Fold this protein.
Amino acid sequence: MTHTEREILAHPELWLKTLELAQIMGDSLEELAVRPVSLVRSGSSYYAAQASAFYLSDVAGYIARSIPAGVYRPRPYETAVFISRTGTTTDVLEAAELARKAGVPRVAVTAEPTGPLARLADRVVPLSFVREESNVQTGAVTCVLLFFRALADRKAGKPTSPTLVDELRRALDDPIRDFDGVSHVVLLGSGWRFGLACEAALKAQEMAQLWSERYIPGEYRHGPIVCADASTLVFHFDTQYPRIQELSRAITETGARVLFARYDPLVELVRLQRMFLAIGLQRRLDVDHPRHTTQSVTFDAPPNR
């Protein structure tokens, strides 16, 4: 069994610990509801930040934005939340240093609570129970999403149910379908689910070296559908999209295969991780160490800011 597969299958335990952490830290992070929040990150965690910012805003009324670390500039009226699995990613550390110099309140969300990023923060959300050997983030990214979702749900007065973990366990027991011949994947999602679509598309690239795209559902008909054919798989995160049947018929007419979410969107992200892992293994790829990747992206040269 690969490290990546083992780490994907560890999700239920990780999610239980994440929900417990959110319960413990909920009161201490209450100021997030008072000040606007910037969620700052790169790569997988950027997409987690993108989805989390929308969820925080839509469900709990937070004023939240997500921004790539490489273009972050401190805003004195915001709290800055920096997200990094290893706590060593160069552009995230540089962004956190900018925030420190500007006197902006800083929160670090990291699996390394004593690492470089944590030392630049006023407060740390310690995801230290997430230990991944694969270069590809799986549990690390979903735990960030679940943590902020739990905070938003708590603020909205509807705490995230632990039955979500039971749903995840059922989904992990589902057999993995055969997707032989798929070389092009399109992920469709709106609202906070668009961030999930972006993250799933990245996993298709990292684990299976597939050509992947991500769109808000209605936008897919405005041009991108021209690339769909028999080698294309289109996945809908948004089963409630009002024109989903009409859109799906148009996609099917191209020869592409269409799949619909059957579980909670966050659970579906884990199912897609498993699917892209299976395709990568079928293609005899190194899913633990995809080519040209490392666990942490670091640079020696100073940035041109």
